[in-house]
Design brief:
Layout: H1 11-15, E1 25-31, E2 37-43, H2 45-54, E3 58-61, E4 66-69, E5 78-85, E6 92-98
């Protein structure tokens, strides 16, 4: 079973994060080792802090208006291994160890399982 590893961050690093008008920032989740993009979700200041404090991914649900820790109900947990913010501070990237069946609520391993284009497979 993977272990949670909190990440120590500074106030200066946290202040570099540029939240949008709704107080949110997009967070991309990438699988450690493969580099595969698993999902994208929204974080606010509190979910970002919880993520660093617990070593697990926490997000803000815009539809439910509540915090959620990835995998608490499904068992498909994410354990943070690295965290980055981009040059503008308006997008986050988390490298995680993915536990369980995957990241997508549909049962797919990645939320990005559908492709565009004439040769793309259909559902």
């Amino acid at each position: 079973m993977p272990e949670s590893t909190p990440i120590a961050v500074t106030d200066e690093q946290l202040s570099a994060v540029a939240f949008n008008a709704d107080g949110l920032v997009p967070a991309i989740v990438q699988e450690e080792g493969t580099g595969r993009i698993l999902m994208m979700a929204w974080m606010n200041d509190e979910s970002l802090r919880r993520t660093f404090e617990t070593g697990r991914t926490w997000f803000w649900s815009r539809s439910r208006q509540e915090y959620w820790c990835k995998g608490e109900s499904s068992g498909d947990r994410q354990y943070i291994r690295e965290a980055f913010y981009d040059c503008d501070g308006d997008t986050l990237l988390f490298t995680v160890e993915q536990e369980g069946r995957g990241a997508c609520h549909t049962g797919e391993y990645s939320c990005f399982f559908r492709a565009f284009g004439p040769d793309a497979p259909t559902d």
